[in-house]
Amino acid sequence: MMYKLIENTQLTATVWRMKLAGDTSAIKAPGQFVQLTVPGFYLRRPISICNWDEETITLVYKVVGQGTEAMSAMKLGMELDVLNGLGNGFDTSRCGDKPLLIGGGVGLPPMIGLCRQLLAEGKHPTVLAGFNTESEVFLRDAVEEMGAPFVLATMDGSAGVKGLVTDAMADLDFTDVCACGPLPMLKAIMNATEKPAQLSFEERMGCGFGACMGCTVKVKGGYKRICKDGPVLDREEVIW
Amino acid sequence: MKDLSVTLSGVKLDNPVIPASGTYGFGQEFLPYYDINILGSLSFKGTTAESRFGNPTPRIAECPNGMLNSVGLQNPGVDHVIAHELPALRKVFRKPIVANISGFSIEEYVECVSKLTREEQVEILEVNISCPNVHGGGMAFGTSPEAAAAVTRAVKQVATKPVYIKLSPNVTDIVSIAKACEEAGADGLSLINTLLGMRIDLNRRKPILANVMGGYSGPGIFPVAVRMVYQVTGAVKIPVIGMGGIATARDVIEMMMAGAKAVQVGAANLVNPYACKEIIEQLPIEMEKLRIDRLSDITRV
Known about the structure:
The structure holds two protein chains of two kinds.
Chain A: E1 2-10, E2 15-21, E3 33-36, E4 45-52, E5 56-62, H1 66-72, E6 79-86, E7 99-104, H2 109-120, E8 126-131, H3 140-145, E9 150-154, E10 161-162, H4 165-169, E11 176-180, H5 183-192, E12 197-200, E13 216-219, E14 222-225, E15 232-234
Chain B: E1 6-8, E2 11-13, E3 17-19, E4 42-43, E5 60-63, E6 66-69, H1 78-92, E7 97-101, H2 106-116, E8 122-128, H3 139-142, H4 145-158, E9 163-166, H5 174-183, E10 188-191, E11 195-197, E12 200-201, E13 206-207, E14 214-217, H6 222-233, E15 240-243, H7 249-258, E16 262-265, H8 267-271, H9 275-289
Parallel strand pairs in B: 3-16, 4-7, 7-8, 8-9, 9-10, 10-15, 15-16
Antiparallel strand pairs in B: 1-2, 5-6, 6-14, 11-14, 12-13
């Protein structure tokens, strides 16, 4: 389906925010992703959905290679071919009253849509974000505008709690965890709490809709395709 | 009215477009995008005697005009396919099915063929002797004429449906292997499988794929595929299903002009889930432009 690029703004040295206008009815849950065609590249690029409304999708992405580099150079008004509403996303019905939403670096964007949804359901989410340093921090405004608490941890202590997200978790009161970020962070969170957790995983993908088996991982009791059966897995099924 | 129908070893297809094995699962993932009954047929995910997880990830890498994969024949095993995948496919798909079969020994090929040949909807058995992503099997059978002939003879003993041998392009002389399969009794051939390739992540200074090497597919390999289909169909009498980088209706016509009786569409399905639908809808339009009334007339013109 075609979408029109209506915003492409740099947020930090490497992170950009893109807004697309078009049909968003395919999006069923926060934590789902899109597959975006980047002219000049063969495979689509999977990007998590940061937030959405009836007419627009917000994507916040990090420039990590040539494909995302090309995305950052896309001009407003451009028509983009996007497969929308892919993957399972977070199941908010399984969240408790006080979910802790943890985003590590570029794992933070899907927590925005999730936070909005949880607030709409009358729950009381807290967003905990981990970065290396203050200049890398993004999306703080997006959380605070929704009225949810935003807790920050930086490795060098230049803003918020000094250390990892797990160092900041100790003082927080929460019922369960939803997290997205690097694998070592997800592992550390699992070591820091026994509470229920939904974890979003990343994998190099081919198709993004379950056909190619490019992103399969072993889970307890079988295999899962990160693109179709994930990207969100329950902590109980993950093999670390 | 344009006639798109083709016939493969007595199996009539409404059109020559078949999604290639490994790019279409067992059809289910494409149901949200279109009615898959518009397809000529469907070659399902390569099936082995036992279930296989396949290779570690990353299994996918970007390439100019294509991609690498090193999935490594992930599949639930032939018994599970017959018990679960084929009944589910039967509910949504009424066309002939191509059963894609892989193995690590001749006995394993024979076991899979003898089970899948009994499935009513399976009308063609496509025996893959060319997977580049598994050790000790697959492509090993596809790189020597003797081994290719041995697999062909063995599966023909138990097959009750036409046997098409899927050939590897990763050989010096594909014609000698094609001829060996024909002499051993193959009813047809499928070619080409992916080309063995490799990419390196410059930042990590390591191969992108966990399995180091993988199969290159996509429009970049199309000229190689056309060449090989042309060479093989010039040397054998059995029908050939042509594949390798097909992405448009014009590619289909070109592949058929090179000698293919039908075609398979692979990587294109993964970057555009509507690829087969768009190709099938565009075929009559391109035929009109080229003044072709009956598509089967253009094979190796």
